Amino acid sequence: MRPILIDAHNPSPMTGRGNNTYLLVAANDSVLIDAGVGHPAHLAELDRQLVDHAAELRRVLVTHGHGDHASGAPALAAVYPQASFEKYPWPDEDRRHAVAWHQLKAADTIAAGAERLAVLHTPGHSPDHLAFWHEPSSTIFTGDLVVAGGSVMIHASPGGSLAEYLASLRRVLALRPRTLLPAHGPQPDDPQALLSSYIEHRLMREEQVIAALRAGRATVQAIAEYIYDDLDPALLGAARENVRAHLEKLEAEGRAVDEDDRWRLCG
Prior knowledge:
It is elongated, with a radius of gyration of 19 Å. Strand 10 (139-143), helix 5 (162-175) and strand 11 form a beta-alpha-beta unit. By secondary structure, the protein is an alpha/beta fold. It has helices spanning 40-52, 67-70, 73-79, 91-94, 162-175, 191-214, 220-227, 236-252; strands at residues 4-7, 20-26, 29-33, 56-61, 84-87, 101-103, 109-112, 115-121, 130-134, 139-143, 179-182, 256-259, 262-265. The strands form 3 sheets. It has a 6-stranded mixed beta sheet, covered by helices on one side. A 5-stranded mixed beta sheet has the order 7-8-9-10-11, with no helix packed on it. The protein has a domain at 4-189: Ribonuclease Z/Hydroxyacylglutathione hydrolase-like (Metallo-beta-lactamase, Chain A, 4-Layer Sandwich).
């Protein structure tokens, strides 16, 4: 496994320096993990790599339906009509990207030449989130599961789940990957430490949400301001989504209740 990193060229406050997409070349075929956003520089670099390796793009595997991962699919389809575009279904998001999506399911196996990638359903950040596991090299393509040096938003409003996210982190941690290839940021030196730190961070945030409720903060906005008091305003929307995800987890566990968008602890 020698994945080729191709920058999607979409830096922003939410994406950091931009998305990582990964090209896997085997014989004269190739697989691209994540579609980027259709930036001309991304398309040009992908084409250069395919020409250099005398390969055709056969499959595009999308980790999830958020725009920075999936919106480049139509641009790729226009250039590579032979390519198949594949992801776990999320109909509300999938119809925003005008390609014929082929369904991936948990436990599917993807062929990349002689190599095989196992499809892991790792929901939480979004309901359709996938990771791709190459067991022989203990390499995992993690999408938005973790970001070295950053945090991951749990998109609670459109279907994200903190409980599922924590379960996904623990599932990947149990695989003991030696190489972790994220969709944002650098490749981490210690995948085990990074995955463990993400679990610990979410549990710490949960305690902060509980402390905010005890202090009388009753709305998502008030709790977000209490916890993230020095946050860049451009990221406050993401902070509110994370707070809502924590509150919904507490509610599902019978530890908090929502009364007309005002939250309180139970008992």
